[in-house]
Design a protein that fits this description.
- This protein is mainly α and 171 residues long.
- The protein is 71% helix and 0% strand.
- The protein contains six helices and no strands.
- Helix 1 (2-19) packs across helix 6 (141-170) and helix 5 packs antiparallel against helix 6 (141-170).
Length: 171
């Protein structure tokens, strides 16, 4: 449900950006050049260094800027491309966190349990995103919703695994 609301927010953002005009009648442009998805995430992490709970604000930043600032970002293909780029960046972040977590000296039982949990999480994410996209079956929004869902859920998981790493460092 949150992902569907996110996708709807993207559509509303597009509508408001398309309507924004300067006094000279030219469309508004973003104040900064768009960073890559990976750089956007890393910059957000640096901005919230030492405040893990504030990192929850990082998911979706790239997608929003990409849609608003990239030529064609406000098209269905553009929205899917922006969401896919952020999804791929969060996948990389998640993979890094998983490697770090595997190197923290957990017991064999903890490692086996976590691997089972991770496999279950992947299946849950994929099923949840298929479900959310199914509300738009046959329409162009299905791809947007599906990709935005994958991005958002992967970001949440990457942040959760980072928190587990931090907990292991404390103990």
């Amino acid at each position: 449900m949150r992902i569907a609301i996110f996708a709807l927010s993207l559509c509303l953002l597009l509508a408001s950006t398309a309507c924004a005009q300067k006094d000279d009648g030219q469309p508004e442009t973003g104040p900064e050049p768009i960073l890559s998805a990976t750089n956007t995430i890393e910059t957000c992490f640096m901005d919230h260094r030492g405040a893990a709970e504030r990192r929850e604000m990082c998911p979706g930043q790239y997608i929003e800027n990409c849609i608003r600032q990239r030529a064609g970002g406000d098209t269905t293909v553009g929205m899917i491309t922006c969401a896919r780029e952020e999804y791929e960046a969060w996948e990389i972040q998640l993979e890094r966190n998983l490697v770090t977590l595997s190197e923290t000296g957990r017991t064999a039982l903890m490692q086996t349990s976590f691997e089972a949990a991770q496999s279950s999480w992947v299946a849950h994410r994929d099923a949840q995103c298929r479900y959310e996209a199914s509300a738009y079956e046959g329409g162009t929004m299905a791809g947007v919703v599906s990709t935005a869902c994958l991005s958002a859920m992967t970001a949440q998981r990457a942040l959760r695994v980072a928190a587990l790493v931090a907990e292991m460092d404390v103990h």
